[in-house]
Every structure is written in C-alpha cells, then in structure tokens.
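Progress narrative, Year 2. Work on ABC transporter ATP-binding protein from Paracoccus broussonetiae subsp. drimophilus advanced from sequence curation to structure prediction during this period.
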Amino acid sequence: MIELRGLTRTYDGVAVVDDVSLTVPSGEIATLVGTSGSGKTTLLRMINRLVEPDAGTVLIDGVDTRTVPVHDLRRRIGYAIQGDGLFPHRTVARNIATVPRLLGWPKARIDARIDELLTLFQLDPATFRDRMPHQLSGGQAQRVGVARALAARPDLLLMDEPFGALDAMIRAQAQTELRQIQRQLGTTIILVTHDIEEAVRLGDRMAVMDRGRILQHDRPGMVLRHPASPFVARMLGTAERAFRLLSLSTVAGIATQGSAPGPAIHPETTLRDALAECLWSGREALPIQGGGIVTLTALRASAAQQAPE
Ligand SMILES: Nc1ncnc2c1ncn2[C@@H]1O[C@H](COP(=O)(O)OP(=O)(O)OP(=O)(O)O)[C@@H](O)[C@H]1O
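Result:
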C-alpha cells in the first residue's frame, strides 16, 4: 500500500502540489488526471524522490521513504515516462537490463527477462534486442521504456503519460497488456494521463487534480456518475460521460438468449462499442461469439440504469 500524507511542494512561492493525501491499496491502479500544470508530474516525482517534498510524507507499505537510501528506493520503484527516457547509446537489451544489472542479477536471468518482456510487448527479441533506440519507432521505444520500468518486477510502478506517443490501436493494446501484466504480478501502479478514456479504463480509482489539489478520488464509475463539482464534470467531458460509463461494462453482462443476423461480437466487447456497432450497421441486435445476443433495447436500458438520479 502506498500512502501520501499532506504532500506539498512549492516553487517560487506557489504550492504546485498543495497538501495532497492519497492512499493506493496494493495491487491497484490509480490514475491521475487534471488540468495542465495542476501538479500531476510533481506529485508523481515526489514518490520516488526525484522531487523532494517541502512538507508531508510518503509511506510505502508503512515505511517512510525518507528512511530509505534514495538509490535503493529508485531501484525498487519502476518509472516510465512520456517520450520513453531510453539511454540513447545503449541497445534495447542494455536499456531493459539497467535495474537488474544494478541489482546484480546473474546474466542468464537478465537475458531471459529481456526476452520475456520483449515478447510480452510484441517485439521479437531476435529483431529488437540489439537495436539502438534511434532505430525504433516512437511506439516501439515507448514499449521498451515500459518494459525497462517493469524489468526488476517492481512492486510499485510510476507512469507519466507512458502511452502518449502511441496511435489509438497500439495504445489500446498497450493498455490491455499493462492490465494483464499488472494482474499477473500484482503491481501497484500510479499512472498520470491526459486521456480521460485511459484513466477510466485503467484506473481502479481515479484522482482528478486542479491547481495542486485533488478534487475527487474514487472509482471511475462513481466519478462519472457523481462528479464532485461542475468543474470535474467538465473535465470528464459533460457530453461524453454517458459513453464513458458504457465503456466500463461488457456485453457479457447483459446478454440474452436468441439469434441475430450479421457478424458476431466478442463477449468482452464494451457496451459502448456494441452500441456503436448497432448504430453503424443499423442492427437492432448483435450475436455474441459463443452464444446469446445483445439488443439495442438492452443497451439503452443499461445506459438509463447507469445514469445518475
Ligand atoms: N522545477 C520547477 N521549477 C519551477 N516550477 C516548476 C518546476 N517544476 C514544475 N513547476 C511548475 O509546477 C506546476 C506543476 O507542474 P507539473 O509538471 O507537476 O504539472 P502537470 O500537471 O504534470 O502538467 P502537464 O499536465 O502539463 O504535464 C507548473 O506550473 C510548473 O510550471
């Protein structure tokens, strides 16, 4: 579990992070969204002490991070940033190996880990292991950046816009991969993003920041249904809220028996995507792979049920 208590950081007399407290239970993903300059990156960097707080404490599993030598702390915490932050003169393999080498892992274990991570991120090890960062596309470099952050299996992973340079398709894929990896390893993740969709999709809880303060911190469904203020509602995109809520559930939950014409959809398809498919193809119902159908009526009923009173 990670606990931030009363964290404050001031620059030029302005508190850019202002008395922020936040608890993230172990094995959860907390997403952090907010206006530009609201202090998200500063808050994240106070956790691994790349920025020292002026006040407040960070506890990781009950241990005050000030009592841990900074280099030990940074080795234990994965950190993936926008851009990728790769060392330009090191191969992909050497980049991924950075922390395992510092920790003194045997070479065979490091090599196996590099191949495992490259495969996980759909980068063929034989092709990519010896490439230099400038020989990668932006999206490939970002995936290597995330692989490097995960290399030593950190319990805590801090991510600052890690998927910013990915196109929509690879981005969705990278998000799914991150979720799978996180579930497998039980990693606790704090992820800063500008993408509300990403925050809703990935966050067990999401925090909304403005001017150094957290305005709301709750399950995405709760934030969408009950934004704490008109400002939060605007941030979430007032007109988009209904669709974002629909993207939190899959058709498996509202499937009924029956048959319907046309191509079948996957049971994990979100209600939002199913609605789009109904509208786009002009169908009143869609067959689901493996049996059952989802109807437009059920989609509308589900949307109405989720709407705030
Ligand atoms: N080293 C610094 N010196 C002075 N001011 C700083 C420093 N680092 C950050 N700031 C200021 O602190 C505020 C918060 O910055 P921060 O990068 O944490 O915001 P952010 O929410 O991550 O922004 P964005 O979404 O635009 O990336 C900004 O006004 C920024 O200009």
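Residues 11, 16, 34, 36-42 surround adenosine-5'-triphosphate (CB under 6 Å). The mean pLDDT is 90.
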